[in-house]
Amino acid sequence: MNTSKLLVAAILAIAVGAPIAGFISEIKGQPMMSAGSRSLFEQEFPSGRFSGQSELASLGRASEWLNSPALTPESLRGKVVLINFWTYTCINWRRQLPYVRAWQEKYKDQGLVAIGVHAPEFEFEKDSANVRWAAEEMKVRYPIAVDNNHAIWRAFNNQAWPALYFIDAQGRVRHQFFGEGDYERSENVIQGLLREAGATNVSSEPVVVEPRAQEATADWPNLRSPENYLGFAHTESFASPGGLLQNRPHMYEAPTHLNLNEWALIDDWTARKDATELNEPGGSRFHARDLHLIMGPAAHGSRVKFRVLIDGHAPGSAHGVDIDAQGYGTLTEQRMYTLLRQPGQIVDRRFEIQFFDAGAQVYSFTFG
To answer: For the domain bounded by 4-19+223-367, which CATH number is listed?
Structure first.
């Protein structure tokens, strides 16, 4: 059977382990986000408020609403509103989600309304069917404003995924937070705004959250590999000879050596602005507990089989939730796939992914 790897024979190879300067602003208890995501979005969707409109009024510019009728400043008057900017492939948001979910459940009867504003990063995230699938799969039960045109994003002058905006009962933004972490402080803000709005018996105790699988807290002490895009517009550290060619098929060869956090292609691939696509079926090195890859089949309804190897072998107990112990998995939709979760001591490892069918699209690596 012919296969293709992302680095190493239609391989995607990446070496991970270098310091993650520029990946996050802080590690714990501080705003953190992908610097790459921030710069990408600022270039393509410049921020700026709509003249004469408040932030909440911009909800009227949502493409559609999920889980709720359209919400307006009038319908939200007297409520404390938590706006959460998200996009469903963002690993930082996935790790924040269990807290937002818990806050909504705990405080909804005392006047809290959580609203998830889905502002897509990749083109496939604009597909309503994909967003509906993600909301159901990830148990996002609170109202969702679909912001495909990023109108709400601009009205809030937002800067990153994920982001939280805390709005009082008069419709004023009183606090904001970019990235994951600092959850107890954020909950204190919610509690204070609820009391200010007249709610009684508001608990001072924080929610108890036990995140699992893709929602689990990152292994910050061992996280030394940064997020990296695989489209030509924003990728870094590409190691195949001749570089990454734009918008045309090319037979890539493996480099003689991969340094930490470098990646390469092997076989016949086409690099596009936001993704790289395998044309005909024919690695990477990293240092982190978890390895995720945003990818999917190019055609709706199609399936692409793949296999993951770590240091040339089946991952065994290090396999993630989207592959088995032998490393096999199948692309069924465009989303984030958790490929590896290493037990025990974390060291530099070499990652390879082999695709057995044409039509795989890969967008970016993230780690945890």
So the answer is: 2.60.120.260
